[in-house]
Amino acid sequence: MNKKKYTVDEFGRVVDGALKGIEECKVRLLEMVDPLIKSSIKKYYYGGTDRDDLISEGKLKVLECLDSFDRSKGVYFLGYVKAQLRYLYLNLGKSKEFEVSLNSTIDLGDGKVELLDTLVDESVDVEGDFVKDCEFENLKEALSGLTDREIQVLKMYYFENMGMKDIAKELDLAYRTVVNTKVNGVEKMRKSWKVG
To answer: In angstroms, rounded to a whole number, what is the distance separating the alpha carbons of residues 194 and 139?
Structure first.
């Protein structure tokens, strides 16, 4: 591999021409910074993208640097390009790092399986749904043994968070009647409740 050395003056003239939009200078600049692009890939990129694609991305970034470079900031063009290449390859590596196809196969020891088939749906709880269904059925059965008044009082007390005095006032019943109705309803439900 024959690496050509460039003088600072030669590089400066090429950069000046490229910044002015001269196409030959842009092509020459890309040749001059090719080793910088390759070393930046080696230093900062950790991923699986094809090397030629990464080199093309780097060359594109150098051309973009020609448009965004501001001499008035007092920064050397080469230092600016070097920093931009660093960020480019770090970001490319970051975004590519975890890209895996769900259709890719993995070996679980007893055969190959698609990655998609190994994922678990956290929102599905078969056992929990079964228990809830059983509890619901038990509750329905327990409620079927209550009078309409007992159901009404229990609903107002437990679901509407009403006090006994408020329930008595609402239903136009004596306080003691409401208390007894609630106690009787709870007792009937306890007796008929199936523990499963």
So the answer is: 9
